[in-house]
Amino acid sequence: MIKIALPKGRIADKTLQIFEKFIGESLCFEDRKLILTKEKFEFMLVRNQDVPVYVERGAADIGVVGLDVLEEQQSSLVRLLDLGFGKCKIAIGSPNHYTLDFSNPNLKIATKMVNITKSFFAKKAISVEIIKLYGSIELAPLVGMADAIVDLVETGDTMRQNNLKIDETIMEISAYLVANPNSFYAQKLEILEIQKFFKTQIQS
Ligand code: PRP
């Protein structure tokens, strides 16, 4: 049995479409069900940020998760494949008419990605105050709580509609197929077969 953790939403749908071709059967979660078993596969639906937890603890053997989550959680999972979908980026943004000045010693940055933000500024030897938020990050500079944000940008609509600009891109993001290191060792052939199939599917 191979257990697979998927992040609820579009990425799970895309991944399931590929697994449908791999298994040769249709895969559809019933209503509010969180587990779907088909042949020797067990799929589970979890929150994006929780995928590494399930895979690290071995509740799932493999999973699909955004690079942002892997980097933020400094997760030590085996990165099997960059799936090339779920694309977005992590960027620093600030109000359109504001000039972001990295030499300002009192910069306040709002973000939900504290570790990525810390390491980005530490590498530049810039000291910043980080304000941890859980969502609607774009609001913080609009109400004067932060000078800038570090956040995910997909279409750019949220930033645009809130009069924010991108000052710098920190990282390009996409979804990754990952594995628990022990599962990868114990079920190497099966997992490599999945990886190989996904590779052919994302190239075509
Ligand atoms: C994410 C991100 C941005 C938005 C970017 O938020 O934090 O706010 O999507 O997308 P866009 O560039 O296409 O506008 P999410 O929708 O996950 O909600 P959140 O604010 O609750 O984190």
TrEMBL record:
It is found in: Cytoplasm. It catalyses: 1-(5-phospho-beta-D-ribosyl)-ATP + diphosphate = 5-phospho-alpha-D-ribose 1-diphosphate + ATP. GO terms for cellular component: cytoplasm. One of its GO terms (molecular function) is ATP phosphoribosyltransferase activity. InterPro entries: ATP_PRibTrfase_cat, ATP_PRibTrfase_CS, ATP_PRibTrfase_HisG, ATP_PRibTrfase_HisG_short. Residues 47-194 form the ATP phosphoribosyltransferase catalytic domain. Pathway: Amino-acid biosynthesis; L-histidine biosynthesis; L-histidine from 5-phospho-alpha-D-ribose 1-diphosphate: step 1/9. CDD domains: PBP2_HisGs. Its EC number is 2.4.2.17. Keywords: Amino-acid biosynthesis, ATP-binding, Cytoplasm, Glycosyltransferase, Histidine biosynthesis, Nucleotide-binding, Transferase. GO terms for biological process: L-histidine biosynthetic process. Heteromultimer composed of HisG and HisZ subunits. Catalyzes the condensation of ATP and 5-phosphoribose 1-diphosphate to form N'-(5'-phosphoribosyl)-ATP (PR-ATP). Has a crucial role in the pathway because the rate of histidine biosynthesis seems to be controlled primarily by regulation of HisG enzymatic activity. Lacks the C-terminal regulatory region which is replaced by HisZ. Belongs to the ATP phosphoribosyltransferase family. Short subfamily. HAMAP family: HisG_Short (MF_01018). This is ATP phosphoribosyltransferase. It comes from Helicobacter ganmani.
